[in-house]
Design brief:
This protein is of the alpha+beta class. It has three domains: 121 residues, no CATH class; 136 residues, no CATH class; 103 residues, no CATH class. A six-stranded antiparallel β-barrel has the order 3-4-5-10-7-6. It has a four-stranded antiparallel β-sheet with strand order 2-11-13-12. Helix 3 runs parallel beside helix 7. The chain is flat, with a radius of gyration of 34 Å. The protein starts with 6 loop residues before the first helix and ends with a strand.
């Protein structure tokens, strides 16, 4: 396929001033795109299972004041201190010893995420959370507040009206109702980027793709797919997470090159056999790679019921005795007679679920069965409790 095209047919060097290596890069781009769109539908794009090293977002945090809250603001001391400092910066000096206890102001923490390649002047969303004893931030407006990164530098300035989905109301008799969380709000496009974060994307002659889930087989398949399209030794798997790909030095070509690789199709390897147990909700998740060796399981439920039936003891007439209540307890023990079931060699997930459902096991019972199977050496899977 490559030999069917000449350099002149692919690119006119006199018009675009490109050398042979540049034209070879364009040819590889065309081949890569055709390969990407002809891949099987059950596979995944590389951009969905991996990310480029150095291309990441950064967390920003700040402190500010929300005003216009009516009577739902803070009563804390540091809120008044913050108001005094802000007014001083604006040229207003409060008399010494005066504590501005304004109930329509709340001290808040501001969070934002600075995307990769964000440029000065772009807008990003911010989340505002009360850090005092304010009852609600509904109807408030955030005053201009700097947002700093981990290095202490200011990267964005936030300001704007809050959108609060929560609602809180109370009555004079002490009744109270709260819907969602009224102390957290959001400002869409509420911060303006003031500083650009440099990335290593344009540096060097290689790109490193990091898998979201470490797996040696998947990393090897990604490297093989890239080499099959762009030529041998273009990509090399460094470990179970990283794949190093030789890339053009020219930034413009590197962007196109990264686009080609991101749209290549790879079939990720299946995850290891795992059983995930959520101890808080009782949720049990078993992936399709779990297999069970031959085992016989019997599961029953023992129930003890104790009921109290107090008896009244009435003395005979003229006996001089007193009426008394004597306790009487009825104890009943019952046990479900569930049948034993057998796991055949290498049974699938569907057979495991069907066998457990036949004995009516609850999620907690299922966990006990799986732990017993693992202790017996019949369950070859990682049992994870989260």
């Amino acid at each position: 396929m490559v030999s069917a095209y000449t350099d002149t047919q692919i690119f006119q060097a006199k018009d675009f001033d490109m050398n042979i290596s540049d034209k070879r890069f364009i040819l590889l781009f065309v081949l890569g795109m055709s390969f990407s769109f002809s891949a099987p539908v059950y596979a995944e794009r590389i951009k969905d299972i991996a990310s480029i090293e150095g291309v990441r977002s950064n967390q920003l945090v700040g402190y500010g004041l929300v005003v216009g809250l009516g009577t739902s603001g803070d009563k804390t001391t540091f809120t008044g201190q913050s108001l005094r400092n802000m007014m001083t910066r604006l040229g207003i000096t409060l008399p010494p010893g005066v504590d501005p206890k304004a109930k329509n102001i709340a001290a808040v923490a501001i969070q934002a995420e600075l995307p990769a390649f964000a440029k000065s002047g772009q807008a990003i969303d911010v989340t505002v959370s009360s850090i005092g004893d304010a009852k609600s931030l509904r109807g408030g407006s955030l005053l201009m507040s700097p947002l700093k990164g981990a290095d202490g530098q200011v990267y964005a300035i936030a300001q704007g009206s809050l959108i609060v989905s929560g609602l809180s109301a109370s009555g004079q008799d002490g009744s109270h109702i709260t819907v969602n969380n009224p102390n957290v709000g959001r400002i869409p496009n509420g911060a303006t980027v003031e500083r650009t974060v440099n990335t290593s994307f344009t540096e060097g002659d290689a790109l490193v793709f990091n898998l979201h889930s470490s797996d040696f087989t998947t990393a090897n398949r990604v490297a093989e797919t890239i080499n099959k399209v762009l030529g041998e030794n273009t990509a090399r798997a460094i470990d179970a997470t990283s794949i190093r790909v030789s890339a053009p030095v020219n930034p413009n070509q590197k962007v196109t090159f990264a686009s080609v690789i991101e749209n290549m199709i790879v079939t990720p390897d299946d995850a290891p056999a795992r059983v995930i147990v959520n101890s808080r909700t009782g949720t049990v998740v078993i992936n399709g790679k779990v297999r069970v060796q031959p085992a016989a399981v019997s599961h029953g439920s023992l129930t003890v019921t104790i009921s109290e039936s107090p008896q009244v003891s009435q003395p005979n007439a003229l006996s001089g005795g007193q009426t008394a209540i004597t306790p009487k307890s009825n104890i009943k023990v019952s046990e479900e007679k569930n049948h034993m079931f057998v796991f055949n060699p290498g049974v699938s997930l569907d057979e495991i679920v069907k066998a457990v459902n036949e004995v009516g096991a609850s999620p907690s019972d299922l966990v006990a069965i799986l732990e017993a199977l693992r202790s017996a050496g019949s369950l070859h899977a990682e049992l994870m409790v989260i």
